[in-house]
Write a structure and sequence with these properties.
This protein has 389 residues and is an alpha/beta fold. The protein contains 13 helices and 17 strands. The radius of gyration is 22 Å and the shape is globular.
Length: 389
């Protein structure tokens, strides 16, 4: 693992490339020789990008600049970069609009080593989500005392793979899977552009029942600048970085972890909080996952007309903590879907909004409406709202 290369995926954003290269220079590498690849997709106006890459002084090992004579597009470009793992044994891939933590490389090495022989893990993320990208609600995993959690959702904002993990994915990807015919894939994932490599990797994890290992504190952050998947700049993807330079991390296995989430951002260990077998319980606390017809019990924030076995409040954060600690209230329902009934509780949309908005500053809202036109106000909220791939 000591020679795990770093690959920076670049296109036509010189300022972004200069920034991430500077952050890579500021990171710690445990006195290792670290190969750096800067892969630049073809664009007519990327001469500045190439100049920045070629002039950059990498003091930690060999630097290689890869330029492409034709435009690959984001999906093909990332897949080519990932395939460097086949030659080097493992790989760290970073898109150019990221910034890395000083300890990102140490975390990646330790995490790759930890999951190397675990077929249940399909890769390692360096980014940590604070939004549920399926329905744009706030999200954080249950804190269970470890430095990691597990997510059936691949990462595109800083990720690492072993040769074995990448080879297994390519074997599935080369079958040309038709994603529209695969069940249990979130609708938003299916709707992502065909330029997205991520939609294929997420689907692969679901089909093969694998997970990504994620950090509890992020080792990368995203500037959300205009690019292939962003039409507006946004700070919505910015997350706190881990600034310590320690190289010791406490990792849990999937069995040990209480922070294991499916592609809908739902905790798969909730059945252990209830006296219900996992095979009989479908979890949709965020209200985005559809009803699982093959399962008898459904726990959800949705108001549905089935027999209610138990109700919970929605005050604690993250949301699944309300189930873990049995918080009283009428915002989350445990249903027995085998028995139709009338749900007498009122809609909880108002409470949901208050739960997700941390604070509303009245003076700021007044200022927006006083100074801005409706179009400007819409643009402000658009920039505050994270977009999906």
């Amino acid at each position: 693992m000591a020679q795990t290369p770093i690959v920076v995926v670049a296109f036509n954003r010189p300022q972004c490339l200069a920034r991430i290269l500077q952050s890579l220079s500021n990171a710690k590498y445990e006195e290792l020789e670290v190969p750096l690849f800067i892969s630049i997709d073809f664009a007519k106006n990327n001469a500045d990008v190439i100049a920045i890459a070629e002039s950059f002084n990498w003091g930690f090992g060999k630097k290689t600049v890869l330029t492409h004579k034709e435009n690959l597009g984001l999906r093909k470009h990332v897949l080519q970069c990932g395939s460097l793992a086949l030659e080097h044994g493992s790989i760290i891939v970073l898109e150019d609009d990221l910034l890395v933590s000083p300890s990102f490389y140490s975390f990646a090495l330790r995490a790759l080593e930890f999951v190397e022989n675990n077929d249940e893990v399909g890769g390692v993320s360096l980014y940590n989500h604070q939004y549920n990208v399926q329905n744009l609600q706030n999200f954080s995993p249950i804190e269970d005392g470890y430095d990691n959690w597990y997510f059936q959702f691949a990462s595109s904002w800083g990720q690492a793979w072993t040769k074995k993990q990448w080879k297994q994915f390519l074997r599935w990807y080369d079958t040309n899977p038709d994603l529209s015919k695969i069940q249990n894939i979130p609708e938003r994932v299916i709707a992502w552009s065909e330029k997205s490599w991520l939609k294929y990797f997420v689907t692969y994890l679901i089909v093969k029942n694998k997970y990504f290992l994620y950090p509890k504190i992020s080792l990368t952050t995203n500037f959300g600048e205009v690019g292939t998947h962003n039409s507006d700049e946004s700070t919505a993807y910015q997350v706190p970085l881990r600034f310590g330079v320690e190289n010791r991390f406490s990792f849990s296995s999937l069995k040990e972890s209480n922070s294991v989430y499916d592609a809908f951002f739902e905790n798969t260990k909730i059945s252990e909080y209830q006296d219900i077998e996992h095979i009989d319980l479908c979890v949709s606390l965020y209200g985005y996952k559809p009803l699982c017809k093959e399962k008898q019990f459904f726990i959800s924030s949705k108001k549905l007309n089935f027999k209610i076995l138990k109700t919970y409040g929605c005050s604690l954060k993250p949301m699944d903590a309300n189930i873990l600690l049995n918080i009283a209230g009428n915002q989350i329902f445990l249903y027995d879907t085998s028995e139709p009934s009338t749900n007498i509780f009122k809609e909880t949309r108002y409470n949901s909004i208050l739960y997700n908005v941390k604070i509303i500053i009245y003076d700021d809202l007044c200022y927006l409406f006083y100074k801005g036109t409706i179009k400007k106000i819409k643009n402000v909220f658009r920039k505050l709202t994270p977009k999906t791939k």
